[in-house]
Design brief:
Length: 112
Amino acid sequence: MIRILINVWYPVEKSDAVGKKFLEVEKVFPFPPVIKPAIPWETWATKSGLKGSGIFEAKEEHFEKAIDYFVRRLTMYAEAIEGYRFEIAASVTSEKGRNLIGKNLSEFLLPE
């Protein structure tokens, strides 16, 4: 299994917009069964706003599909909500995870 860390940041005043976007995205882009939460999603208060974070697992053979999924899903938020940013990281203990080092995440998008 490969662990994938997701971090997102957004301004406090955008929290309602993020909640609404979550409901919208869930309807059209739900989690695929190949991705499982390892550590539940939490939202944290920080000096610069809110930070959401969670760790997910996928089998090594589903790594590319999982990264593709997260890039597409989180881009939906970033394009719709001013100040929303995200980071996707994978465990360095995995050879596939190390593939993310120095790469633009768009390189991991699978053809539709």
